Amino acid sequence: MGSNIFSELFKRFLPAYEDVYNLVVEIQGLLKQHPVISSANIVIATDGKSPDNWGHQIGENPDGPCSQYRHWATARFTKDSDPVEVGEILLEQLQDSFQRQECRLC
Question: What is the spatial distance between Cα 79 and Cα 49, in angstroms, rounded to a whole number?
């Protein structure tokens, strides 16, 4: 598992692809068990300082666990979404946010 679209530079600052993928798979498993809810909006966020310093939440909550972080990404997915694609979408958004706001350091 893994994605080659993320440069080595960003791997030093953003969550690991495998961690994001595993989170999506876990939430998707919960969706598959639920008789009514068929989709979820996931938010992941990071401060961009370490691949281990990030959080996630389901739904949009301005006071949720992601509120402390500077870089956000969001994706809506269903029970049948491809978790590889969802993980890549989330990390692409984080990478874009990081590049726009932090690349004066790069």
Answer: 32
